[in-house]
UniProtKB/TrEMBL annotation:
It comes from Paracoccus aminophilus JCM 7686. It comes from the Bacteria. One of its GO terms (molecular function) is transaminase activity. Its cofactor is pyridoxal 5'-phosphate. This is Transcriptional regulator, GntR family.
């Protein structure tokens, strides 16, 4: 059995569905993340073998857990011999310059498998993924080759390694994260001006997605048609859950510059949400 957060990174949910695995979810608060007490209770009452967690710049909520909370989750999982797969794909996209802490920092028992990617920080041709798997390396390699996968171009991998060894990547991240942070703050301010007070866009700690909470009566799936016709791309909340949950939530990509065209789309989005029409 696999434990996932709700909401979760939706490509992972699609993989779990294709493999027909047993899955149980745990609520992830957009401000504080998952509750450690609820996490412990689920591990004690369900035959969970793997927990899929994203504790830094969570997609789509943008929450980053405190170091104390991360340490507690690792300790709880280790006590039950549950493997944590830490999705760190968006870990480099933090708005502040504080030293980055991950679940792997507290992994004294080598129980955390950490996955990441350069997909969102380097050009597409260098968007390789990586895994820090410790004692699980042999098992993962066997699975990798049994599924017909092979390592990609070694020259590109060497080029990425050489680039990371210098300071250029750090400079790139500082510029990228400052730009993303500025656009996110501006986007939330603009959105808040056009939406009623009971609509709450969440300020993320990093990344480029804004998690928008709407009144409980709102059904984002029903509004998808009007949004599509208006040329507005929104990810409805149910996409990030196992069922039809989170129907009054939506994820918005605020990585783009705030041109006049995009400002007009925000106004259209607000009208559709509040009135159900463009």
């Amino acid at each position: 059995m696999v434990l996932v957060e709700q909401p979760s990174y939706f490509p992972i949910l699609a993989i779990l569905r294709r493999r027909a695995l047993q899955v149980v979810d745990i609520h992830s608060d957009p401000v504080t993340g998952i509750d450690s007490g609820a996490f412990r209770a689920l591990l004690e009452t369900h035959p969970i073998r793997v927990a899929l967690l994203m504790t830094t710049n969570h997609f789509p909520t943008g929450v980053t857990y405190s170091p104390a909370q991360m340490e507690k989750l690792v300790s709880i999982a280790a006590a039950r011999d549950v493997i944590i797969v830490e999705n760190d794909m968006f870990g480099d996209l933090s708005y502040d310059d504080a030293s980055r802490i991950t679940l792997k920092h507290f992994d004294a028992s080598d129980n955390v498998v950490q996955i990441g990617s350069f997909e969102f920080t380097l050009p597409p041709e260098y968007g390789y993924g990586w895994i820090a798997c410790g004692r699980h390396k042999r098992q993962l390699l066997v699975t990798h080759y049994m599924n017909g996968h092979r390592l990609r171009d070694g020259f590109i991998q060497r080029g990425i390694a050489d680039y990371l060894a210098g300071r250029s990547y750090d400079r790139l991240l500082r510029k990228l994260n400052q730009k993303l942070g500025d656009r996110m703050r501006q986007g939330i301010a603009i959105l808040s001006q056009h939406l009623p007070a009971d609509c709450r866009p969440r300020q993320p700690a990093g990344g480029f997605m804004c998690w928008l909470e709407l009144p409980s009566s709102t059904n984002m799936a029903q509004l998808s048609g009007a949004l599509f016709e208006a040329g507005i791309s929104v990810l409805p909340g149910p996409l990030f859950s196992l069922g039809d949950q989170k129907g009054n939530y939506a994820a918005l990509n605020f990585s783009f510059p705030w041109t006049e065209q995009n400002l007009n789309k925000i106004e259209q989005l607000a009208r559709i949400i509040t009135r159900g029409e463009p």
